[in-house]
Amino acid sequence: MKRLFANAMILAWEGENFRLIRNGYLGIENDSICYIGSDRPVETYDEERDFSGKLLMPGLINCHCHAAMVLLRGVGSDLPLDRWLYEEMFPVEARLTAEQISAGNALAMMEMIASGVTSFSDMYMEPETAILLNKDIGMKMNLTRVVQSFDPNERAEDSSRISESIALFESQHNAQNGKIRIDFSIHAEYTITECIVRGYVERIRPYLSKGARMHLHLSETEKEHRECIERHRLTPAQWFDSLGVFDLPTAAAYCVWVTEEDLRVMLRKGVYPIHNPSSNLKLGSGFAPIPKMLDMGLMVALGTDGAASNNNLNMFEEMHLASIIHNGYHRNPVIMTPETVLKMATIHGARLQGRNDTGSLEVGKKADIIAVHFSDRAHMLPAFDPINMLVYSAQSSDVCMTMVDGQILYENGKYLTLDTDKVLKDARCAIQSLYGIKNGFRIRRKLHGTCRSGISVHASI
Amino acid sequence: MKRLFANAMILAWEGENFRLIRNGYLGIENDSICYIGSDRPVETYDEERDFSGKLLMPGLINCHCHAAMVLLRGVGSDLPLDRWLYEEMFPVEARLTAEQISAGNALAMMEMIASGVTSFSDMYMEPETAILLNKDIGMKMNLTRVVQSFDPNERAEDSSRISESIALFESQHNAQNGKIRIDFSIHAEYTITECIVRGYVERIRPYLSKGARMHLHLSETEKEHRECIERHRLTPAQWFDSLGVFDLPTAAAYCVWVTEEDLRVMLRKGVYPIHNPSSNLKLGSGFAPIPKMLDMGLMVALGTDGAASNNNLNMFEEMHLASIIHNGYHRNPVIMTPETVLKMATIHGARLQGRNDTGSLEVGKKADIIAVHFSDRAHMLPAFDPINMLVYSAQSSDVCMTMVDGQILYENGKYLTLDTDKVLKDARCAIQSLYGIKNGFRIRRKLHGTCRSGISVHASI
Lengths: 461, 461
What we know:
The structure is a homodimer. The first copy, chain A, is an alpha/beta fold. Chain A has two domains: 113 residues, Urease, subunit C, domain 1, CATH 2.30.40.10; 289 residues, TIM Barrel (Alpha-Beta Barrel). In chain A, 35% of the residues lie in helices and 22% in strands. Chain A has 15 helices and 18 strands. At the A-B interface, α2, α9, α11, α14 and α15 of A face α2, α9, α11, α14 and α15 of B.
């Protein structure tokens, strides 16, 4: 099957930069890109579609997510962090069933597909539910079964979470033609012991040659960063490094409070920082030193975090925030470029996920492509510089096609691999059973209230 | 004509707070709200419409805009501020014609209507073009002909801009059944002389009793604020106050660098600060002390600024930013509440505009109402707290109806008072004639380039 997308603006990739083709052709053969150019290809194609007024670009990669937490969207956001966590999040999460998590994953995938996400990295419970759903839905995902331990006597050999992670890796890594990847994961420094980390690293080291990677939370809050230094005389980054964690290719979410020495360690070890601007701002965590990371050459990626601390999974919002908040914080209007932000949301994310066959539009790469409306929408005119427009003006609702491995998942408001009625119905059922409410708009008084922002979910996994 | 909107969530207003009706009825008689309640009204209505799964709320009020600058969206955003301003903005704006400005205004109104804006305050040239357009379109707008002067010998009596402003006030204030209001305006401290300000205030003082109001830029950048002190030994706020400007009800855009003493002056004089978070961040201006203003009791409103420094006119984005950036900056996750941000975008804006008959859903107020999708959209489920959802999760594309004075301007993607084909065609023509380009996607090399953010348009008016 060969498809030709004609008359499109194409955000292609050449060397290490975007190359914009104003009016071009993109050919797809089966699951891969077989042609990109300004001229009509000479080969014949089975199908041709007109993309006039639309831009084709690589699918967005959401590198840090707790997808099923869409079920907790907005819950308890009236409370300060500690009360919210212990009074609201923990009790709800403690009773989450696999069925509910599955419903949450489907709802999250529905949201992400429509907003142009082709691949995401998830850290939550019951990852098998996402794998099962994805047989039909067809996204790409790096999944983890998160590891944490509060028992100083627990040994890695006895950790069921580690054993389950390894079993999951062995059975599912590279499943579904590589759409599924299994990563290893540590929740955070403050939810694990040194003994477990050492043993965990040793247990998973044999899988390094098979593509094992690590995903963790790092220096999100000042308290976390400071208390780690008090406990270990090392920052979280230096502590993880000292225990061999960074010997695996590691994706580190947040990195708000990392020091310059931390960044040097991370650069040396090839750690990928993941910027989560909505979550860091909403929770009052602070401003991650993203411009410094980029200056040093770190490969920064972008993520939404879970919906409970965001409160959506909208990568266009994250791109917009990443492009402007550092200008404001450093009082320097040219400290972040739109190109850099777009790289964070695409090619950097693909590399972080260990997916060298996606993240950019190049011949030979997988056809993980989205189309964005650039005509007939008032907020997209004029569009002198399309990259600038994507970051500063475009909305997730401008996405008009989402394709993964050459398969269209979403087009012009319609989902082709997902039954939206079922997903919404299942989500409503899950919400009802989880909270004991009659519909999506009612909840016990204790679960909402005077409505203050400021919630966090990370310690709850 | 009496219309009943049935089965809606309604964000009503009571005392000084929102009151949410989960499933209610809203009646409209001609241009005003005649009923709000949980129970079906006993009166008969000419028409009934079902709003199941939708939320009715007051229209958003964009309190600081340079609407026609949509024609300059993204232009020159590769350059540092000074070069951009002198090499790109000034030459373009110097050759703007009334016809082009009219096309820009229509494009901006098309964008704002679809994103739920019912009223905006504008500061630009050729306001008559917006008045003429609005006879068909039907928004509300506070327009100004901006005053500036660089000649120390110019006197207010001789200022054609002041004379034109007064003439505009006399002929158009409260035109179109009050939809049009004319405000007076001073561009900024750094673009006007003391002599002109004193004379201007005296010339417009007689119009105070007829509803004259003032709209200006205040302490946007540290440089502006510092240089004013060097020039006048007063901050911009104190300087304007010393010259009698604040004797008029005044709307002050930005207020990034205002001091605590400035805020006390502004509170005493009833000055309304306007928060423009996208612009302040993108341009690297900094973080306006919004939480402090709110604590002190100042009536803070919200605006988009012009599209050249944003780059869109999306009040949902501004609400989102206003709700999270101060949490991050002050490292306090509960410093801004969603309710406060929603007030800034609605009732505070109405008061700033001198429109006491709008800005909230109450019986007797004008039917300036928008409807927002709350069902069948993955990112809006669950919606335990709808106010929280509006600010943290909703998108401008969730707006499914925009009504002004009981007239529907936009519904389910269709414009009822605006010919979108004509607006887009006129905008493209204006862009072509302005820049000498063949279509909206081409421009001379010198007008784009390596694409760096960081542009400002304020001194260019």
